[in-house]
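**User:** Hello, beginner here. Are you able to go through the protein record under this note? It all follows right here:
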Amino acid sequence: MPYESTVFATSTAPADVVRRQYLASAAGDLTELRATLAPDVEWTEMAGFPLAGTYRTPEGVTANVMEKLGADWDDWTAHDDTYVVDGENVVVLARYTATNKATGKPIDVRVAHHFTVRGGLIVRFEQFVDTALVRDAMTA
């Protein structure tokens, strides 16, 4: 494995930890995704979003968010494109794309994610998204 890949894979830099989380999510690798989360992680999906609420523990996050998204949507992906880093805070501007399994309607919606990373693990996440666009794709 090239040196850069080895460094990235073990880096505790907040942006690298967050990027590994996105890569694991896109690959559907929930084990690797959980490895980026602190045992006491606090993961908040925005009010109005279909999975709105705050989830704790890596297993709680993947079971209540990632697995449910996979059950309801085809090809759910968060495309991360811009990172703004301030110490332990990482804000990512991204885009969700997917197709709702029940309606066949696609989404392509901008989002912002705020992560807090401490000790090489994500301890907090908060989602900001236009929930109306997501809900519109879920209704026939």
